[in-house]
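Annotated sample (chain length 84).
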Amino acid sequence: MNKIPQDQGIFEERTRKYIIDRSAIGFFKSILESYEDVAIFSVLDGDRGLIELIYPACFEDDVRGIIADMIHYGIGFREVPDVQ
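Output written by the structure step:
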């Protein structure tokens, strides 16, 4: 289990939105779910490939690592500001 840094409370929440290739949404969802309870995954706009990840701040490094690893599967992520 991850050790929680002192400056990150277990209840502090992060929300990030990304655009990914829409054909990769299902694959990324299954990979993320395999980590069990690291992040909540939502598809905001499947046509545009807009997804949202909500996760505890203590899992920031884990989430960033999972996203970075997806380049090995040809999946790129572009973080976007709050969009509707």
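Annotation: The longest strand covers residues 13-19.
Annotation: The first helix runs from residue 25 to 34.
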